[in-house]
Amino acid sequence: MENRITAEDKNATFVVLPAYNEATRIQPVIESIAEKGYNMVIVNDGSSDNTLEVILDSKKKYPNRVHVYSLIINRGVGIATQTGFDAVLKFNPKYIVSMDSDGQHSADDLDAVIEPLVSGRAEAVIGVRPLEDMPKSRNIANSIMNLLTRIFYDVDVSDSQTGFRAVTIDALNKISINAQGYLISSEFIREINDNDIPFEEVIIKTIYTPETQAKGTNYKVAIKILLQMMKHKLFD
Amino acid sequence: MLIYSVIFPIISLIAIVLFYLRYKEGKNSFSSFLIWTLMWIFVIVFSIFPNSSLIFARAFGISRGLDFIIIVSLLLMFYMGLKLYYKLERLEENMNKIVKEVALNNEIQLDDKEE
Question: Do A88 and A14 meet the contact criterion of CB atoms below 8 Å apart?
C-alpha cells in the first residue's frame, strides 16, 4: 500500500511542525522527514532555548525542503500550527500534514498517513496512537478526552488528542481553526466532522520518552481543554 | 464624627481629581469620567450621611443601607471583572493575529541569521 506514494506526491506534501523549546529533539525529526522526501514548514513558537538555531542548522542540510517561520513570542501549539497552515498555502501543496516536533511521531508513518488522501479515499486523516502503547496515566487521560470530544463535539474517534494529522488542500480551506493551545486537536476533529469531510484513522507508532511525557495533555491542560470545549459549545 | 466619614470623602475627592486629570489627558472618555465621578459622589454622600443609603435600599426592597452598598459594590466588581476578562481575551486574539502576521511575512532564510 505504501509504495503507491510517488515522489511527486511527496513533493506536493508539506509537513507542518510547531516547535516550542525542542532544541534537543527536533533535529532528527526534521532530518528524517527530509530524508523521506517530504517538505516542511517549521514554526518556531517563540522558544526560549536555541530551537531556531537548531532548525536553521537542519535547513542548511536541506535548504529546499525546509521552510522556517518564527513567532516572536510563545503563543501555544494551536497558534503555531495555524501559522504553519497559513504559511503552507504559499507553496501550493496538495496534502498538508501536521506532526509533533518532539520526536514522538515517526516519519516512517508519513506514507501511511497520506495514503488515504493520495488514493482519494479520504480528505482528512488522523494518526491514532494505539491505546495499549500509551503509558497508563496517558491512557486514562486520553480516554476521558475522547469521551469529552464525543460529548461536546459529537465525534467518535479513538484518539482525539493526536498531533499527527493530514488533510488535502481542499479540506484545509474548508476548516477554520481558532484554538490557541492543545484544544486544536479536538477542534480539528470537530471541524472535519462539521464540514462533512470524509476522514480515516491510521494507526501510528508513538515513541514515549520521559521528555515527551512531560509535555502534552497533562491534567491541567485537560481541564483547560474541557473549559474551552464548554465555552465553544455554549457560546460559539 | 466617625473616622470613615472623614477618610472616605478625602479618598473620593482625590479619586475624582485623578479621574479628571486622566480625562484631561485624553486617557478616559467623558462618559466614563462622569460615571466614576457619580460613583465617588455617592461614596462621599454615603460616608457623610450613612443613613441616606437607606433611601436607596428601601427603593430596591433591601432593609439595611449597608447591605445595599455592599450589594452594589459586589455587582460593580463583578461587572468590572467580566469586562476586564473580555478585554483581555480580545487583546490576546489581536496579539495572536499580529504575531502570526509578523511570522508569515518573514520567512526565515539562512542568511538572515548569519552575521
Answer: yes
pLDDT-wise least confident of A85-89, A215-219, B57-61: A215-219
Neighboring chain A residues of B104 at a CB cutoff of 8 Å: 69, 83, 86-87
User: Per-domain residue ranges for chain B?
Assistant: 1-50, 66-104
Measure CB to CB from residue A56 to each of B99, B102, B110 and give the nearest one. B110
User: Is the confidence metric ipTM above 0.85 for this complex?
Assistant: no
Could you report the per-residue pLDDT of B25-75, keeping only the tens digit for each?
A: 988 888 888 988 999 998 899 888 888 888 888 888 888 888 888 998 999
Q: Which residues pair with A126 in a beta bridge?
A: A165, A201
The DSSP bridge partners found for residue A41 are: A16, A67
Asked if A60 and B103 come within 8 Å (Cβ–Cβ), the reply is no
Candidate from A53, A67, A82 with C-beta closest to B100: A82
How many distinct structural domains can be found in chain A?
1
Max CA pair span of chain B: 75
